[in-house]
Amino acid sequence: xxGAIWALVLGIFGFLAGFYGPLYLPDDSPQGPLLGIFxxxxxxxxxxxxxxxxxxxxxxxxxxxxxxxxxxxxxxYFLIIILYVAVMS
Length: 89
What we know:
Strand content: under 5%
Number of strands: 0
Order of helices and strands: HHH
Largest sheet: none
Number of domains: 1
Number of helices: 3
Shape: elongated
Distance between the termini: 38 Å
């Protein structure tokens, strides 16, 4: 269950950052939203699945601790993607 939640949340954050990030930055390339569809969305989903399964099976973390860790990691992932898009354009 925890793996699915992590995969869903990080996948959504990765997709949103990769899809909408290039739209708001000045760029001549029409392929900007493809970053979120084919790159950062699936990458976030996979990373979230691996992290969630690890935390669910191998550690004794509380639900509150898991939510705090999920909020922090998804925010960090979102900021990394936005900064990467800003630097690349």
